[in-house]
Amino acid sequence: MSTSRTQTLRRQWQHQPNMRFMDRLVVCFILFCSVDLRLIRKANAALPPDEITAIEALRDKFNLSNWTAGDPCSDVNWIKCSGAKTNVESLLLTNSNLTGTIPSEFKNLKSIITMYVNNP
């Protein structure tokens, strides 16, 4: 083999461990970013469409206050959601002077724990 060819092969071999390190570094970075994105998506989770439909039906039927910023879990005091804001857990309808029947969409609230409806 010629000297220049030997030197070229030697340089390639010397840089190969660095390339493995760089490959690992890139994979670690990608994994870190994917975990971070999953956390962000969870933090910004929204109510499922069927639960939105249910609370809209309750709001319209009983003339309850509306949410303005698109997040019923944060904007009105008669809805309480899970910590991740992915499900309605409580409805606080005291002193709302409710009359009539509960809309059929109420069945879409799968995680409802409490519903306060008393009128003192």
TrEMBL record:
Domain of life according to the entry: Eukaryota
InterPro entries xref list: LRR_dom_sf
SUPFAM superfamilies reported for this sequence: L domain-like
UniProt-recorded name of the protein: Leucine-rich repeat-containing N-terminal plant-type domain-containing protein
